[in-house]
Amino acid sequence: MDYEKLRKELVEKLIKAGTLKSKEIIDAFLSIPREEFCLPAYKDKAYIDVPLPIGWGQTISQPTTVAIMTEALKPKEDSRILEVGTGSGYQAAILAFIAKNGFVYTIERIPQLAKFAERNLRKVGIKNVKVFIGDGSLGLKEYAPFDRIIVTCCCPKIPPPLLEQLAKGGIMVLPVGDHPMYQRMTVIEKRDEGDLRMYEIGFFSFVPLIGIYGFKSDSF
């Protein structure tokens, strides 16, 4: 299967749809092989614009969703980024490619998935990412502040520790809501004065964030 051809075709569709806009994000989508972050049984579906199972009730997000969240996050080449919900490692790889002079810290609560992500990141040569196992709703205080924070699982409310760990001038993107089928994708900008600007960019569907400031179980 010609994955490179399929990757280019998907990127062209996302550009035409107005979903992918920024050159650095387009370059990341063209450079990071999504098939390497899929389970073997789903590799042939890597460039269909749908979420795919990765085990333990989790998914690799739909490419359109990854593109929308990454565009809203506006990562820079020197950004320090916190990701909550590593999954297969694909979103972390996209971010790390863009933040080539920065670093991505990513938290996964399921140890088997954390190892899966680490293997995938090594396979594609991404080195500026560190995977942590733990409660993502608490963030990583010891590595804060972060220029960018992205949460790839649904939050019932915005976790206070993540707000605290967002640097002034930083941006956080996360789906918020307690409905099992849809949540509001929320963008938070922390201004230099410390006050917040918040707005929503549509409805999405994510697995729940499990933790102290998340849901208490996998069921809503």
Explained architecture:
With 220 residues, the chain is α/β, with parallel strands linked by helices. The protein has one domain: 3-Layer(aba) Sandwich (Rossmann fold). The chain is 28% helix and 26% strand. The chain has helices at 3-16, 23-31, 63-73, 90-98, 111-123, 160-165; strands at residues 52-55, 58-60, 80-84, 103-108, 129-133, 146-151, 166-176, 183-190, 196-204. The strands form 2 sheets. A 7-stranded mixed beta sheet has the order 5-4-3-6-7-8-9. A two-stranded antiparallel ribbon has the order 1-2. Helix 4 links the parallel strand 3 and strand 4. Helix 2 (23-31) crosses helix 4.
Question: What tags apply to this protein structure?
Answer:
seven-stranded mixed sheet; two-stranded antiparallel ribbon; single chain; Rossmann fold
Short description:
28% of the residues lie in helices and 26% in strands.
Q: Major beta sheet, specifics?
A: 7 strands, mixed
Q: Kindly report the spatial arrangement of strands forming the biggest sheet.
A: 5-4-3-6-7-8-9
What top-tier CATH class fits best? Answer: Alpha Beta
Q: Would you tell me the overall average pLDDT?
A: 96
Distance between the termini: 39 Å
List the helices and strands and how they pair.
Elements (H helix, E strand, L loop, with lengths): L2 H14 L6 H9 L20 E4 L2 E3 L2 H11 L6 E5 L5 H9 L4 E6 L2 H13 L5 E5 L12 E6 L8 H6 E11 L6 E8 L5 E9 L16
Parallel strand pairs: 3-4, 3-6, 4-5, 6-7
Antiparallel strand pairs: 1-2, 7-8, 8-9
Helix pairs in contact: 2-4
